[in-house]
Amino acid sequence: MKYFILAVGLLSLAGTAFADGKSCEELKAEIAAKLDVKGVAGYSLEIVDKGAEAGGTVVGTCEKGTKAIVYKKD
């Protein structure tokens, strides 16, 4: 159940996170702030090239869709 709630939270973040025009660092900071407000701990956010294998959940895209922000639970 805990993971289901986390997944729903991440999907709600993804709705606002797919802002292609933002810089990756700006979007990553916004996503981190939202996760922190929700009390999520023990995670990392990584900026990767779109389509690259990152081993996590894509929670946003940036730089006109060329990069992705990946959420990983530590």
Shape: globular
Widest beta sheet: strand line-up: 1-3-2
Q: Which class of secondary structure composition applies to the elements?
A: alpha+beta
Overall domain count: 1
Low-pLDDT runs: none
What is the H-and-E element order?
HHEEE
Strand content: 25-35%
Helix proportion range = 40-55%
Q: State the distance separating the first and last CA atoms.
A: 18 Å
Mean model confidence by pLDDT:
82
According to DSSP, the number of beta strands is 3
Number of helices: 2
Largest sheet: 3 strands, antiparallel
Radius of gyration: 11 Å
InterPro entries: DUF1161
Pfam families: DUF1161
Keywords: Signal
Organism: Pseudomonas fluorescens
Helices and strands in order:
Elements: H1 2-17, H2 24-37, E1 43-49, E2 57-62, E3 67-73
Antiparallel strand pairs: 1-3, 2-3
Task: Describe this entry's structure for a reader.
This protein is an alpha+beta fold and 74 residues long. The chain has one domain. Helices cover 41% and strands 27% of the residues. A three-stranded antiparallel beta sheet has the order 1-3-2. A hairpin with a 4-residue loop joins strand 2 (57-62) and strand 3 (67-73). It is globular and about 30 Å long. The mean pLDDT is 82. InterPro entries: DUF1161. Residues 1-19 form the signal peptide. This is DUF1161 domain-containing protein. It comes from Pseudomonas fluorescens. Keywords: Signal.
